[in-house]
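Feature request, filed as a ticket because there's no other form

It would be nice if the structure record came with a short human-readable summary line next to the tokens. Right now we just get the raw output. Example of a typical job, pasted below so the devs can see what we mean:
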Amino acid sequence: MKKFMILALIISVTIISCKNEKAKEVAAPVADEKVEVIADGTYIANVETSILNWKGFKPTGTHDGSVAIKEGDLIVFEGKLVGGGFIFDMNSIVVSDIPVEDEGNAKLVGHLKNEDFFDVVKNPTAMFQISEVLHEETTLVKGDLTIKGITKSIQFPVTLNKTATGFELVGDAFKIDRTEFDIQYKSQKFFDDLKDKFINDEFEISFKVNVSL
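Raw output as currently delivered:
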């Protein structure tokens, strides 16, 4: 009787172990199916839904708006961003914080386009070309920004996210020194009698680049 009970116990343990192993084998592919990876390749930016946002600062307040991305691409390798570049249409400058029907809107847009700022007649586009992407705790993009024909190296953190229609590259707000691109208007670096009429040298940039698959 004892031998029979021991044999039955061994058989029961074996059956349970086999069931557990089969359960593990079935569950593994389900986890793999949830992993989403962006395929390697060069992707063209959707200029209709991509945007560059800007924000300027002065003692009495701020102004903000956007600039359209004229064209651009992103290069992905092993599921990670590795390169790309963009051209910005400087004639598309928009001011968002002043109502369009307010004459102050057109006045500020005109001022931003003239020689005091971006001189868009001579420089209708600006460019950014990625030179390196570092993938550490955060993804850091390094590259060359060209404004008014002057090129400077900049860097900023980004995230690359899957979306319902493709993926997006998002750059949260970071700052650029406008005087490095010969934009001297009301800068305290060049004028010492401005009192509280100066404009901050650094302006803020953020962007979102969409790619549809």
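Something like this underneath would help us a lot:
The chain has one domain: 43-212.
The radius of gyration is 28 Å.
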